[in-house]
Amino acid sequence: MRIHVALGVGVLLALGACSSSLPSEDVLPKTSTHTAAAAMTPTPTPSPTPTTTAPAQGALAGYTISVDAGHNSGNYHAPDQVNALVPDGRGGMKACDTTGTSTNDGYRESAFTWDVALRVRAGLEANDATVVMPRTDDNSVGPCVDYRGNFPAANGADVAISIHANGSENPATRGFFILLADPPLAGPTIAQHSRDLADAIIVEMQAAGFPISPYGAITPRDDIAGLNFNKVPAVLVELGEMRNREDAELMKSEAGRQRYADALVASLLRWADTHQPAQ
Question: CA 68, CA 134: separation in Å to the nearest integer?
Answer without folding.
Answer: 6
